[in-house]
Amino acid sequence: MLYEPTRFDALIDEPWVPARVEDAIAAIVADADAAFDPRALWPVHEWDAREKPLPLSGLYVGAAGVIWALDELRKRGHAGSSRDLAAAVMRALELERTTPDFSADEHYRPGALISGETGALLVAFRLTSDPALADDLHALVRKNVDNPTDDISWGAPGTLLAALAMGEWTGERRWDEAARESATALRGRRGDDGLWRQDDDYRGLSTLHGVAGNTLALLRFERDAAVARESAAVLSRHAFREDGLANWPARRARSSPGHETAGSVCSGAPAHQVS
Fold first, then answer.
1. For residues 59 and 82, what is the distance between their CA atoms, to the nearest angstrom?
2. Which of 54, 184, 62, 160 is nearest to 111 (CA)?
3. pLDDT tier for residue 249 given thresholds of 50, 70 and 90
């Protein structure tokens, strides 16, 4: 079995109706507005909250991620939030700096994009264009270059993406230089097996935690056919195939021959991203 069916909703045999989708998006935005509190931000699911300081503030499971989504939906003309998102993200940034969501994790560094301060800073700058926030973000990106956890969530691949986004938004040369520094370090740390290190016994394959995501970050910086070919070959070697379909293990640990397959960005189904 390539995945666990009980963990996913089954597809439905109904036509795509754009108006119904737009109505659903508007309902989600209205629900987010109704649940918002200026101090407590948004409530969180108990699974996400597990022993973390509340309210959650970061990009992954916290307020910064909600704010980014609401702002993106508005920019794309889908539905506009009635809340002051700029004020909300500054509150989220304050919390992420004082009581970060993932500080108890062994991989934690403030520079992490998905699970650290960088994500909240990126959203804050997007909404405020405050140059002081850009300076703070630049410092975090530079400090995260040597992060030994090479994945989008924690390490240099994530802050490479942050530098690229800031370069697009500001046009400042320093962001291209920061991106190049991160990309050079990331290429240099790729193992002889074509994988990157997340910890002493883990070599990830997926978009959030491994080869697929790291490769996408490098290719966002500059097209490199050799990097793409090597990643495609690595993913092909590690694929589990069944009836003409493929999926990938959630873990590729050197000491563990077992595997668990899934279908999410965190694990499983990465190959189409870099093929």
1. 20
2. 160
3. confident
